[in-house]
Design brief:
single chain; 331 residues; alpha+beta; six-stranded mixed β-sheet; five-stranded mixed β-sheet; 4 helices; 17 strands; disordered N terminus
């Protein structure tokens, strides 16, 4: 089975500390315009309902897109020391409504336009509040869609969505964030007679982690995409295709500065990585507590690489060295 159409992505992020919000975001790929924006949490509407509690055990149906995405994302996150995610039904409703909005308006975007079919709120925070989720202690939202020339199982759709997000220089933050709450929404349609899926995830409720900065991938991670493409804005210094990115993440009040990065393959060949942080990113998508390092050309499938990174966190030097293994997956 092959992907006939570029996987289309859109992403927005909000990092909040107490009453202070810093906004950032990513764009959408494919044929649709996916420019995004994010509003401070203070701009969210105030519903009359109380935020539903998280579910300690996910209630997504077996063999569903939702459960496959939830399980793979949680597996990757916990391997690298990030908080385990718990399902929240209000966020499920908000992301399902946004997925329907994408399908109804034939767009891939983080934001919605008032008056368009299916509108429930401009931003992820607005839509969460519309469905009763008001605990806005930090939020990351991603949206996307893809279609294939063959029918996949829902498990395959869900896992491919996660692999694609994780292989994006600006979308990898769904795996590398300190959130602990998630909602997942998906709508299935057809395009030119083939299956098409639109979907959205919203991660919220930032926690404090020890040992920062953390990375994804990290020591022992396996099966990640060796190549990716189609993200907008296009990551700098690439021809439109790149290799497995490595995210470096602190707590929301931290400042990450990336200095150097390399990957070394099993034959000893050293690949110099493009390093970005909030100051170096020409697209201004990364927040101060985020950094990323990535090869500007695809890696090899089913291969082990050793990563070496240096930088500072709040002015204090750090270094990270670890090995991960790619899978036979294009994100």
């Amino acid at each position: 089975m092959t992907i006939q159409k570029s996987f289309k992505l859109s992403m927005a992020a909000i990092a909040a500390s107490l009453l202070v919000a810093a906004c950032g975001g990513g764009g959408g790929g494919g044929s649709s315009s996916g420019a995004s924006s994010a509003a401070p949490a203070s701009g969210a509407s105030t519903p009359a309902t109380t935020t539903p509690a998280n579910l300690t055990t996910p209630q997504y149906p077996a063999d569903s897109f939702h459960l496959a995405a939830f399980n793979l994302l949680n597996q990757h996150r916990q391997q690298c020391g990030f908080p385990a995610l718990q399902e929240n039904t209000a966020l499920d409703q908000a992301t399902a409504a946004h997925a329907q909005y994408l399908a109804s308006n034939n767009v891939i975007s983080d934001t919605e336009v008032a008056g368009n079919p299916g509108f429930t709120g401009v931003t992820y925070v607005d839509r969460a509040a519309h469905f009763g989720y008001t605990a806005n202690n930090g939020s990351i939202g991603v949206s996307g869609g893809f279609y294939t020339n063959a029918t996949w199982t829902e498990t395959q759709y869900g896992e491919q969505a996660i692999y694609a997000f994780e292989s994006g220089v600006y979308h990898i933050s769904i795996a590398a964030s300190v959130a602990n709450t998630v909602g997942i929404g998906k709508v299935a349609t057809t395009y030119n007679g083939f299956p098409q899926e639109q979907f959205s995830l919203n991660l919220t409720n930032y926690q404090h982690v020890t040992g920062a900065p953390l990375t994804f991938p990290c020591q022992g991670t396996t099966g990640v995409a060796y190549s990716s493409f189609g993200e907008m804005p296009t990551p700098p210094a690439t021809s439109g295709h790149w290799g497995t990115p490595v995210a470096v993440v602190g707590n929301p009040t931290d400042t990450i500065v990336m200095q150097t990065g390399t990957m070394t393959d099993s034959s000893g060949h050293v690949i110099t990585l493009q390093v970005l942080d909030s100051a170096k990113d020409p697209n201004k998508e990364l927040l101060p507590d985020q950094g990323v390092a990535y090869p500007t050309a695809p890696l090899s499938p089913n291969s082990q690489y050793t990563v070496s990174l240096t930088g500072t966190i709040n002015g204090v030097p750090f270094s990270r060295t670890f090995s991960f293994t790619t899978g036979n997956i294009v994100g």
